[in-house]
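Contributing new records

If you add data, match the layout below exactly. Sequence lines come first and carry their own label; structure lines follow with theirs. Keep one chain per record. Anything else will be rejected by the validation script.
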Amino acid sequence: MKYLVILAFVAILGSLAAALVFMMKGESDNEALRTKRMARSLALRVGFSIMLFLSILLAWSLGYIQPTGRP
C-alpha cells in the first residue's frame, strides 16, 4: 500500500510538471494543440488525485492502515 501511495504522488507531480511544460512552451507551437495537451495533463492530475484518495479510503476500510490519533 505504501508503494501505491508513493506511485500516485509521483504520478500527480509528473502530470502537473507536464502541464507546466505545455503551458510554458514558446509561441511557435500550435496554440490549440498546446492547450489540449495542458488540459489533458491537468485532467490526469485530477484523476490521479481522486485515485489516491479512494485507495487510501479503501485501505482504511480494509484495515491496512489505521488512524493513530496523534496530533
